[in-house]
Structures are given as C-alpha cells and as structure tokens.
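Help wanted!
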Amino acid sequence: MRALALQDGRLELVPDWPQPAPAQGEALIRVTLAGICSTDLELVKGYAGGFNGVLGHEFVGVVADTGAPDAAEWIGRRVVGGINIGCRRCAVCLSDGPEHCPYRTTLGIRNKDGVFAEWVTLPVVNLRLVPDSVADEAAVFTEPLAAALRIREQIAPRPTTRIAVVGPGRLGLLAAQVLALAAGDVTVLGRRPESLALPAQLGLPTGLVDARPDDSFDLVVEATGNDAGLAHSLRLARPRGTLVLKSTFHGNANVNLTKLVVGEITVVGSRCGPFTPALRLLEQSAGLRGRTAGVGVQVQPLIEAEYPLAEALAAFDHAAQPGVRKVLIRAS
Amino acid sequence: MRALALQDGRLELVPDWPQPAPAQGEALIRVTLAGICSTDLELVKGYAGGFNGVLGHEFVGVVADTGAPDAAEWIGRRVVGGINIGCRRCAVCLSDGPEHCPYRTTLGIRNKDGVFAEWVTLPVVNLRLVPDSVADEAAVFTEPLAAALRIREQIAPRPTTRIAVVGPGRLGLLAAQVLALAAGDVTVLGRRPESLALPAQLGLPTGLVDARPDDSFDLVVEATGNDAGLAHSLRLARPRGTLVLKSTFHGNANVNLTKLVVGEITVVGSRCGPFTPALRLLEQSAGLRGRTAGVGVQVQPLIEAEYPLAEALAAFDHAAQPGVRKVLIRAS
Amino acid sequence: MRALALQDGRLELVPDWPQPAPAQGEALIRVTLAGICSTDLELVKGYAGGFNGVLGHEFVGVVADTGAPDAAEWIGRRVVGGINIGCRRCAVCLSDGPEHCPYRTTLGIRNKDGVFAEWVTLPVVNLRLVPDSVADEAAVFTEPLAAALRIREQIAPRPTTRIAVVGPGRLGLLAAQVLALAAGDVTVLGRRPESLALPAQLGLPTGLVDARPDDSFDLVVEATGNDAGLAHSLRLARPRGTLVLKSTFHGNANVNLTKLVVGEITVVGSRCGPFTPALRLLEQSAGLRGRTAGVGVQVQPLIEAEYPLAEALAAFDHAAQPGVRKVLIRAS
Amino acid sequence: MRALALQDGRLELVPDWPQPAPAQGEALIRVTLAGICSTDLELVKGYAGGFNGVLGHEFVGVVADTGAPDAAEWIGRRVVGGINIGCRRCAVCLSDGPEHCPYRTTLGIRNKDGVFAEWVTLPVVNLRLVPDSVADEAAVFTEPLAAALRIREQIAPRPTTRIAVVGPGRLGLLAAQVLALAAGDVTVLGRRPESLALPAQLGLPTGLVDARPDDSFDLVVEATGNDAGLAHSLRLARPRGTLVLKSTFHGNANVNLTKLVVGEITVVGSRCGPFTPALRLLEQSAGLRGRTAGVGVQVQPLIEAEYPLAEALAAFDHAAQPGVRKVLIRAS
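Answered by r_m:
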C-alpha cells in the first residue's frame, strides 16, 4: 500500500509499504482522513530519537476487518482511535490506563505504524464510534481535541479564573475553545496581529503577548513550543498561578526559573486526553455556526488545506510553514 | 411602595412599605423582574429562623439613583446584583469575599429587604451590568445560574466523570446544564416520568432515579432538598465518589451515614456563585435555540408563569405547587 | 479451636470452632494478640446486617503455614495483615485496591472469619512483617493506626490548619496523634473533663466541646459516632471547612444539614488506611516516652486491659463500657 | 553599628553602618545569632539584580524597643521574624499574605536591611516568640524550617508517597526531615558518598542519585539549585509525578522539557513558609537525640561553624565552599 514513512530520519512516500494485518484483538482500518500535527513535524526533525515507520496519529477511518470474531459488529463502522497501546498488565495500565505504560507503543510515534497510509491496525479497545452528525472533517480533530480536554482533567479552571493561551496555532485554538466552555474567561495571545485573526473569527478575546503586563493571568497555557513563548508564559502567570505546557519542546529549553521558584508557580505537563468526551463535544457542536466562543467548539475553521495521500510530502511542506493551520491528508 | 413582606411568619402584600433610600455607596434600583426560588418558600415555612422584611433575591432592575457621586455612571443602567453584603473589614471578607462573612446581610434572606418590591437598594460593588443581548427574562436567572456555576468552583468534574443530578427542578436543571458544558457526561434523574419531559426537551439525558443501580455515578448533585432524594443521592454515588448538596434542607435530615463512611464519600455543601461568568454564559447563549445540551445554557424554557407584583401572593401559591418551574414577578 | 463468634446476632465463645486451613495463596496465622474496636461492638448490635462468624480484625500473629510453596519464607515471621480481601480482578481492585472492591470480604466483618480465635487465615499479599523493635502490644494497633493515617491520605492538613478531634476515644486519640505530626495544630475535644486526662497525658492540647465557639476550626474529625458529636462537629467547622467522619454510625443519623449547605462544608468519609507507613511510624516511635505530641505516636498508653481468649466475653463487656480505652485479647 | 553589607555588588564589613530606628509599628531587635543561606551567596553573585544593604534574613534576637506604645510587652522577649513585609493594603496581602505582595520588601533581600548586623528592625506583626525550651542555635533555623514546611502547605504527600530529596545540603536536609514526619517514605540522594554521611546520621535513608532508575519516585524535591540536579530530579519523577523546586537558580537553567510534557509531570515552585508551626516543631523536638528520622526534626547537627560578626567575611568564605553545612554568625 501507499504510506508516508520516516526511515532513518528521512521522510518518504513509499508506494509498496506492506499492508498491515490485524493481530488478535485488533481491527484493520481503512484510513479516510488524517491530520498533520506538530509532533509529526518534530519527529521528522529528530524528536523522540529515531522513530522508523509510518507517521501519523490523528485520523478517522472505517473498520474493514477484525482479528476477533466477537468484534464483527465493528466492521463497516466509522471510527477514531486512541493512540496509546499499553501492555494491559502493568500497574500503570491497570490503574491509570495506557498513556503512561512504560511498555506502550504509540500510533505513528513509538514502535507502531501510523495513519498516513491507506490502512492501519489498532486494538479494538482503542476504537470509538463516530456519531453520524459528525463529519469526517470534524472527526479527524478528535485526537487533538481530546488533548485539549486533557487540560480540564488535570486542572480545574474556576469560572472566574483568568486564562491566557499563548500561541494561536492549531493546538492553542483547540485549548482556548475548550477552556472557554463553562463560562471560562480566556484570552488568546500571539506575537503578530495577523495571527489573531482566526481566534477573533472564532469569537475568542485576543491580544498581543508583548503588550500584556507581568503576573496578569491565573492560568497560562503554553502552546508555542519555543523558548520565547515559554518565557512569556512564565512572565504572565501570577504568583501562585499555574502554567500548562501543552507543546512538546524540541531539544533543551533555556528557562529562567527564578520566577517559577520565587512566584511559586505550578507547571503542569499535559499530553493525551479522553476520546469519548471529545466526540460528545463534536456531536454537540455539529450544528453550530459563527462567532460563538464558549458555546461548543468549532474545528473546521482550523483546516488550512487538504492533500491526497499521493501528495503527502507537499502536505508536510505546507504544514511546516509558520502560522499554518491544520493540513489534512485524504487517504481514501 | 408595594412590597411582598414576611412579618412574624406571615406573608403579606403591603401596599405602603417605606421606599428604601440608598445609603453611602449604595444604589437605588427599580426592580423590573424577580424570581421565586425554593429558599423563598422555605423562609415562609420558617427556615433560617424568623426573617422579617421584604422577600426575594433573584432580580433584574434599573439603577435610578446612587448614594455616591462617583457612581453616577450607573444611573439608568440595567443591572443584576450579588446578594451577600459583607462587612468588608473581617478576614473572611478580605480573603474569600462576603459570602461567608459572619456579619453579612443577605438580600431578602437575612437583615436586608429584598426584591419582591418596586424598589430595592444594594451596594454599588454588588452590581453587575447586564449585556444588551441578554433579555430581562434571562437576566433574572443570573443568581441561580451563578449558584449552579458554584459547583464548578468547588469541584472539578473531569470530562469523563459520570454525573447525576437528582431532582429535575428549577435549580437541578441549571446545575445539569452547567455541568454538561465542557463535554460533561450528565444525567438528570427524577422520580416520575413526567418530571423528565423538560430536561429531555433541553437535550439532557434523563432517567428514573429508582431504576439506577447503586454506586453508578462519580458525582451526584442533590437538588431535591428532601430525605428521599438525599438517600438516593448517597446510594448512587460510587465509593470514593462525591455528593454535592445544592438544596437547603428544612429542619433535620434523617440520613444513614454508613454508606458515607464505608464508601468514603465526599459531601460538599454548595451555595452562592460568581455573577460575572454567569452573565458571560447568558450572553454567549443568547442566540441559541433547541436541543443543545452541553452547548450554552437555556433558561427561558424554565419559566412557568409570570405575575404582576400586585398578584405576588398568587405567584407564591403557584410556585409552591410540586413540579412547578420558575415563577416570575414583574415589579415594573 | 477456641473462637469468639457471632451467630445469628448472638456472641458466643465457641470451644470447637473448626480450625481454618490456608487456601491457595493464603497463610495460616497463629494469633498472638487482638484488639476490640468499636466496629466489633456495632456488629454485635447488628450493624452491617448480620455478619455470622468469628469477629475481630485488629491483630498481630505468627505465620505457621502457607498455601503457597513460594511463600515459605513467611513461616515463623511475626505479621499484621490488611483486612480487605478483594477479588483482584475488578476495575476497583486493579486501580484503587481492595478496600472498595464490591466483591470483597473483610476480616471479621464481612464473609470472612476474624481474629478472636487461635488461628486465622489471610492472603499472603495482605501480610506485613512487624519490625523487631515493635512490641506485640504496639503492633496490635497497626490496623487502627493505618485507619488514622487514612485521613492524611484523603486530605492535606497544612501546618497552619486548626484541627479539632471530637471524641477522645480509642480512634480519636490515634487520629489526633497522627494529625499532630508534621507540626499539626490539633486539639482533642471531649464532653467531660475526665475524658481529657489521657489526651493531656499524651501531650495533646484538650478542651471541652461545649466551650468552643462555632466555626472555630478549619478541620474537624468526628470520632464519637453519635448524633451529638456529629452536631458539635458540624457546628465547630468554619464555613468552607472540612469535617472527617471517622466513626461508623449505627442506624440513621439525625442531622441538621443547613450549616453544611450554607457554610459550604466538605464532609469526608474515612475508613481503612495503609499498613506500611503505620508500621514505619510504630518503628520510629518505638523508643519514645512521655509527653511528646507531634513527635511520633504513643499507642501503649491507650491499652485499658488485656484478657485471655478464654475470657473474651468479659473483654467485650469491658470494652462496651463508656470511656474505655483499648481492650486486648491474648489468643496465644 | 557593625554590619555586613552588599554595596554595588561588593560585600563589606562596615564598622559604622547607621543603627536603624523602629518606625511606627516596628520593633528594634538586637540580633543574637544569624544563619547564612544559599540565597545570601546568590545575592553576592548578583542574583535578584542589585540588592544594596545589609544582608541576612535567618536570625534569632531580642526586642530592645518598639515604635508602638501598645507593643511594650515585646520588649525583652526572644523572637524570630517573618522576612516578607507586605503593603497590607493590596488584594494579595489581604488574601494570601505578604509573601507575594508586589510592593513587598524582604529582609536582607529586597529594599530592607537584614540581620548580619548588631541591630535590625521588623514590623511587630512579623515577630514570633521563641519558646524557652528552644535554644538560640535551634531558633535560628526557624526561617529555613518554615521554608521546608512550605512544601507540606503546597502539596499533600500521602503516607505511601515515595519521596526523594535530591541534594543533601542545608535546605535539603530540613525538607527531608519535614517530609519524613507523619510516616513519610523519604530518601535523600546525593552525588558523592561522603555527602550522605550527615543524612544517614539523622536516620534518613540515603542513596547515590546516579544509581537510581528513572521514574522511581512519586515526589522529588530539587534542593541542589544546579542544572545537573534538576535534570536528575526530572528523570527520577514518575509519569504524573511531582517535582518541587526549592532552590533558587542563578541565571538560566538549561532543561530538557520533553519528560515534563510527555510524562505529564507537575512542577511546583516553593519559597517561604509558616513560622508558627516551625516553632511548634522545634519545641516538640527540643529534647530529642539520635537517629530518629520521622520523629521530630534535628537542626543542630546541621551547624558547620559559628563566627563572630567581626569575622563575617570569613564566615561567608566558609559557607561558599561545597558541601558545607550551616554557618552561623553571632552578632551579640
């Protein structure tokens, strides 16, 4: 089959990658649509040390077959899927789940071929049905939307919490929308006025990060993944405030920790989140239109472009440009 | 002025109650619309030991005058107002705010005449402007909606938390809608099928409380204010789960605490909440229609009837009937 | 063997109770010393609906045999043991542990014969070695001390938290000592001056519960198990404070919940706790003497009397008298 | 008077520094004994940008005079004192206290002369009486012990939490002792075997930091203040674990944040803590001797040397050497 693979650090569109077969308990899925995320771009740059295989972990697809007779009901269903595959035997899997299993594989990231391909396999337990009212172009956002919801699992923004999201990119705008729900007081901060057009279009309050005074937010979400964004985020958090790190940083960060210690800031790393509420939120938001921050989420305005799988390399080039929104790859 | 007052336990429509004058720092407000809540009904029954004065604390009105020259900008503005008036000097006021000030008065509840009258006074610091897009019939729900949001200030429902609201009444339906935001998984439980029609119309999942098995929810909100509802709520909370008591109970409750101790349940009392996010939520929800649980809140379907102030006693009789939604009193 | 058993609500010393045999994975333990706790007294009164079998769950003993060849190293060792025996297959067991397993048995409380007998069996995974420096008379307190430590697992008293323990009984004095550690500010409150002699002897600040004003503690631990104690505990907790229910209540409690709701109190049920830190604390405290609240724990001053197993009925009579400390039964 | 002052980055023993006079509400204190801490050494290196004045903030002394007639009872009393002096008018002061007041001065650190001098002034509200049983040589540790207790205010180690303190220095050993209280499971980790002699003498479990596997602690306290210690601390924290930063870092830290994000670590900055429980802990521990980790705290073994104020420069040279314990300066 056709697949976009990383091999010894080189990204290639391979015409004859072997089609995977579902193992015991797995489903074989025909990929419909997949999304490129910053982690994919970091993997190409060498993050996480040498993944070899098919990239991609954001997707929607249709189950074609299963390696389990009692899972036949899944065949033909439209699905999304959790990306972490735990051992299901260790203490971490049995208590917290697969996300932090030391033996886990991760779809398109760690020892498991991903979704920039015609076919992919995943354990049936990882699958979630997509409601009919949720279009493929929305369902493909389930994984990053779940990651945004993860913030709400880790910390409890009160309705009166002053929240800033630093970085008006793909993930930042999902995080901001999710935090604006339930009457959240969220401002999206960027470095350039043109980067604020899209959040404004989504109905979110915006501002220039340089113009905001020190210590002016209770909760800051860092969604830039670079040193300057991190420095601003620390600067903006009030003493005893909270800073959520939502982006993976490539290489070492150079941080002045004095504010962190003297201001007794709490910093929380945040990664994967829950699929079921992400799908519920997409379903609830299916009919919404227009400037409605705080009322459902809008994901389709975040789409920049769509490429066929045959042009996946061009899709990656596009996605790597600064200020670009979500680039999708249509696999079938 | 005309006012509905409780005097030595007797509720009376008084034609010539003295019109209040704004003290230093206070505003004089022409009441537009006011809502009857269960606490008002409990006060008439004798709850909180002998309040004497004008009842009522849910309202929207227009500022007519202020007792502060520097507050002239408020005159003519449409407002709602926080109901707790703290001493502003004690440690509680200076840290947590007026809600738990031991010297506080409370609008229509404790040593302060309320809003079932043509005029009322409140400190200017308690006032909040009503956005233009929020109708009076929505703004009058600010106070109970803030009380519902209070739950989100006290506990952090994760997106995966299984939540039940026991009691599909006025407050229960506000709490359920607020908890359904941000992808919350909420079910409204009632004793009779007909009580579930309104929550179903609001798009909320519903069920009969008797039909639900023990230990099946992570978080239960008790919104009935009676022993049977409390017993069910304790029964439904899973071991190590949380139970929020949102209703004031009249007199002593008769509770079997064994489940609470053996199941290590956490019980959280919950009262007044923040007005600013409540108004933000009403503004965001202003244009919404239809079955959209989880996406904004709908308050106007909760209105049962509206009476002129001259018929306030009839309004109370109506509100006291079982299964009745919000009864409003139009004062001007 | 000789055993003290509850049969159809009647407590009897049975001379020829069948000696248990260790099942697969279990150890057979010769009971050395066992303690009577309030739950035992409640079970005799009918709490928890009809346990039939040998009572008792606080003990220290010596392993005589095991039903597992690979557990031979336990033979001859002095042990205490966790009282909850989970199914080890359900989600609760695999995440939180056996304490809330819906299929659990509980030593001497629920479908599992207890320790007021010459022999008892327990799964090897439930056992903990007793350090040499910890005497039998201290080790027998491991289970109630673990239950006291459970409070510190559930809530985080800050060093500045004002704590009251209401009820200077067996469990109350363990809770107070554990909360006094790490610079805790703890007062033990009782109804009668004579009940305060022992806590004073342990170096704990004491007071009469009636003399304390409303709202004067941040954290209150209810350790009386009766309505009056519960009412005082609620009364003493400040608005937004916390109340821990540590005692099982027999039958229904009659509570005025107004303070709980209006004061937004959090109530936390608390039951079994961790054995490993309880043993560590007993070991650290082994050499301590005198008035040293806040520095280790003293358990042996809590011993009221010791009876041989042959006089276990007299031991129960003694333990049931008001104001009595821990009564021990020596089984071998 | 004689004073050790930092002037334009140069540390000097000044023979004729002007003796301070107590302002309204302040006390004039004769310094008895003062301690050199790492922050003092960092200030000399240029941390916190250019403090000019008398250094020093850890002390015990005797009140000689007050600038308040109603505070006469303080005269002649032995005291320690909180180091943050807030404006007492801003929202931070009125809610959280002076530690994070944006207008605060800080004794010997920020716009307020410190205690390496014969006399110092402090607001009376900052003073705490030293119990008679607490020697000057213990009381001088009140401030750093309060800073160690601050960890327990910010996070709640459960009795079963596996805790590492990385850095067996002055502050690390106070933090480790405080965390060992209440049955804490604490290991002190250092880079060289000889650095572990003192924690072992205090009865604390110890180990070499290099020898510990990744992800092996639930809670790690970073007490080295250098990049290597920080990297190890992040490495040792388990996924979803917590890292407390207790040391101020001089300049920028160079950190790999991948573990923080992917492992969803929580990092908590931690600074000043509460004096009252610190004094209570010193009083409770006054009579303790020997290897008793977990039972009170021992501070006097942490003393390396004592110098008269006239030899304060030599004291600083001594304190700046690696692996050195607390160096004291006797001012009178």
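OP: Thanks! One thing I noticed: The first strand of chain A starts at residue 3 and ends at 7.
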